[in-house]
């Protein structure tokens, strides 16, 4: 029999408390990762949209004649 002075009940309580804290931490981390993926997805779509707009602007022919000044100029 080992020479462990602490009875099993308090040790079991300590293990259950640590497990509860670890489960909460895992849930918090999981929620954070899900939020980050949602944000990454949004940003990825925004970058794709901006890239498409930039490509369209580059492909659009530039007019050779400058715009005339407004009438009040």
UniProtKB/TrEMBL annotation:
Coiled-coil regions, chain positions: 12-60
Pfam families in the cross-refs: SlyX
Keywords tagged on the record: Coiled coil
InterPro entries (UniProt xref): SlyX
Matching PANTHER family: PROTEIN SLYX
Family membership: Belongs to the SlyX family.
Listed name of the protein: Protein SlyX homolog
